[in-house]
Write a structure and sequence with these properties.
By secondary structure, the chain is mostly beta strands. Helix content is about 0%, strand content about 50%.
């Protein structure tokens, strides 16, 4: 499975961005999809995940109510709508595909990773 993330950019505090991650080379609906983020000098951390059908989602506490993960299995694409952005959201965002929903917050649960897209929120 190959994952291609896009949609990052520079935005002011309070602004919005929508990240996309297009998958190819596998059966997309078999994988749950997630977004992680990594700031300079810090570890890569879980942001959000969506089950294979998209009916189940999960978020890290700091983005609940601001970010929404969704997926379109017909387009083999997962999205992360980010509203109310804050400077602390600045990071490289990575999409990932995995099969163990119970381990969704752990990097080791993921078999495939995209290349990352930079999100910068100015104050």
């Amino acid at each position: 499975v190959q994952l291609q993330a896009s949609g990052g950019g520079l935005v002011q505090t309070g602004g919005s961005l929508r990240l996309s991650c297009a998958a190819s080379g596998g059966t997309f609906s078999m994988y749950f999809m997630a977004w992680f983020r990594q700031s300079p000098g810090k570890e890569r951390l879980f942001v959000a995940a969506a089950s294979g059908s998209g009916s189940n989602t999960d978020y890290t506490d700091s983005v609940k109510g601001r970010f929404t993960i969704s997926r379109d299995n017909a387009k083999n694409t997962v999205y992360l709508q980010m509203n109310g952005l804050k400077p602390d959201d600045t990071a490289v965002y990575y999409c990932a595909a995995g099969r163990s929903w119970a381990l969704r917050a752990m990097r080791s649960a993921y078999d495939y990773w995209g290349q990352g897209t930079q999100v910068t929120v100015s104050s």
